[in-house]
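Reader question, answered in our methods column.
A reader sent in the components of a multi-part assembly and asked whether the whole thing could be modeled at once rather than chain by chain. We filled in our standard form and ran it. Here is what they sent:
COMPLEX SIZE: two components
ENTRIES:
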Amino acid sequence: KQEVTQIPAALSVPEGENLVLNCSFTDSAIYNLQWFRQDPGKGLTSLLLIQSSQREQTSGRLNASLDKSSGRSTLYIAASQPGDSATYLCAVNNFNKFYFGSGTKLNVKP
Amino acid sequence: EPEVTQTPSHQVTQMGQEVILRCVPISNHLYFYWYRQILGQKVEFLVSFYNNEISEKSEIFDDQFSVERPDGSNFTLKIRSTKLEDSAMYFCASSEERLFSGNTIYFGEGSWLTVV
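And here is the structure of the entire assembly that came back:
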């Protein structure tokens, strides 16, 4: 069964810092990987989707990479802002369902 | 931007009662899902639904659970004989096509179920 792990579980950084969130998965037979953002008591918002054939995707200050063979993905956030404070979830797609990690809770201090 | 809407946002129910969680997926989407998140745990897949039938379900989704698309817009999750351990946030989601082809999945804001 696919297991998804995210490190660190929590991260607190000062505003303006660049940061990296890590995700690893045990079964490399995935179709794609998505990074989501979850605000407290809210739903999940898709940030970036990387197909298994891709190495990275970028959206604004966010860059996600995928190394499928080693079972790793990273989410890079540039010039962090207080509004980035949220929980970031990594999810890997196995045909038509996602396996989620436990998330990284990010706090960006003004 | 189109969105998935869920009702109720929060429901408290007595153990043993039946609850129905409702969802309105995005109108042109064909695939529908329910996920749940027990407090402090991972988001986990329950069921996927396409063409008026279940296409895949997890081992969690036993006879206590059922899904239905009663009309052209709603998608419901019914939980019978609720137990304390059913307390969780239930997320409905939809996608235009199957996820393996790289389609984005859109989640609703969730229905928080508390069983007392």
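What stands out: The interface with chain B takes residues 4, 31-32, 34, 36, 41-46, 49, 51, 89, 91, 93, 95-103 of chain A (CB under 8 Å). The mean pLDDT of chain A is 95.
Send us your own complexes using the same form.
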